[in-house]
Probable transcriptional regulatory protein H8S65_19520
Amino acid sequence: MGRAFEFRKARKFKRWGNMARVFTKLGKEITIAAKAGGPDPENNPHLRALMQNAKKENMPKDNVERAIKRAVEKDFSGYKEMNYEGYGPHGIAIFVETATDNTTRTVANVRSYFNKHGGSLGTSGSLEFLFDHKCVFHIAKKEGISLEDLELELIDYGVDELDEDEDEVVIYGEFAQNSAIQKYLEENGFEITSSEFVRIPNDLKDVTAEQREAIEKLIEKLEEDDDVQNVFHNMKEDESEGEE
């Protein structure tokens, strides 16, 4: 069990909050994927995977179809995916992924959140070295498949960690190998229940309870913004919180 498992354990109980936010963020991802690779999931692996995510989150079919339709509308210019990097209070590194139709608004908002909460926005690329960009697949367990054999098989596809959890297996791989891993899983009859891209911190920083409160205020403010898709940080999770 490596860093990926620890990271997952920490994130597992921190969801996007309410269903409306989940659907908004997923809808944007679906629209971006459909615009980039076409609206037909048969010919668009990323869109296919996102539709599985939507199914897992009980996102209504109408919402999914609307998000795909938006991508092919003539007057839709598309969402721009922008990353922002900075330091929160007490030197905690924060990586913010956004999808926006107005970058001027987004950067102004993100900068104001950092400034108001004792942090500062850095230059693009300044924190990338602190995080490993990974793809993650959740697959249903298959009868008669040993994790060791599957791991050996997938090493050639850029997979570096497998984690067993109840009725599913979680696979972590290199971000650039996302398509190859998905293709292998689909061709070998594995059911992909969901997938995502994550940034796993190389090193976690300890903070006091008081410091954590200040940092979490900034993270919550960022996550509440409609343009923000994901927030990653290198703060060590509170061990005392336990499972919800």
Notes: The chain has a mean pLDDT of 90.
